[in-house]
Amino acid sequence: MSNWLTAPLWPIDVVLPTKAFSNPLLASERLNRRGLYAARVAAAHALAARRRRRLADRVSPEARQEYAAKGYIRTTPLDAAALDALREEVTGITAPAYEMREGDAVTRRIAITPRLLAAAPRLAALVRSPAYQGPIRYVGSFDVAPQLYIQTIFTHVADGGVPDPQNDLHMDTFHPTVKAWLWFDDVEEATGPFAYVEGSHRLDRRRLAWHKRRSVIASTGGPKGGSFRVSEAERERLRLPEPTRFTVPAGTMVTGDTFGLHRRTRATKPSRRLELWATSRPNPFNPLLKNPIWPPPGMAEREAILWQRFAVWAHTNGLRKRHDWYAVGDVRPLDDPRHPSLG
Ligand SMILES: O=C(O)CCC(=O)C(=O)O
Ligand SMILES: [Fe+2]
Questions:
Q1: Of the residues 13, 110, 336, 343, which has the maximum number of CB atoms within 10 A of its CB?
Q2: Could you tell me which Gene3D superfamilies the record lists for this protein (predicted)?
């Protein structure tokens, strides 16, 4: 975007979640050498820490310690019998789904809506419970409802295709942000477990300096995306450990700050990883715990479907370059993928 007519809008991105170096101000080598990007990173982290302190009562003291030390909270919100019943309920749901293809993986998301919850009382009870919402709001540092989905990760959907980019170690964005996984089946090594570098959610001096360097590289012809990929050598230079792989029993929930480094371990065979999945990413520069204008009245529990419809609409109308999500009609979560590229 180097159209000078849009110049008055460039500064707005400085205080928005814009992670890409997508306008001449954000991508200015001179300003980033002087610390523009690093200042955004530091400010977003300070504000998140302040908001998170005010949400301390949403989780146990042990969970707070776990987050502080590792960057995620691991819980088991349901007992074995309740999990079995929920799994049966969820796998029996038929609902509209969206699919995205990345390399040889397909991500299917069924947005959780008020209508779906009305037909799935066990799911409704879980997602509305403090045991489920607490870690998400605490780690995410906002008292805001996350987008909720029933998600299925299909791996090895095409022979000899490009690998899944999610297999690379990365951070999602420059500020603390939350994603939560609750797996319905045991996750094995071969299934491609989620993996997280413990302690990598912390913005220490070394990490901040690294961000500053990456911002200068991005401004001088490097990748402009902002979800930085991190090589093994860089991870070691940041004095961070190898990722912890969540090969865990069914019913485990991991609520992670995906500013921290993570990846989807490469599955060694075709697999379907079924999970209840949440994400929440309000504007990190909002000092308040809630967003005063979102969701508007009547939109509660529609966050996920609104986003999916928006993604398709925005692409169709030329407002969003990425054509990542395809509506694939009504499916059950474990039905075969239907992504158009699979023919
Ligand atoms: O599916 C996974 O294991 C991780 C994918 C990922 O990087 C993400 O959802 O941000
Ligand atoms: Fe990620």
A1: 110
A2: q2cbj1_9rhob like domain
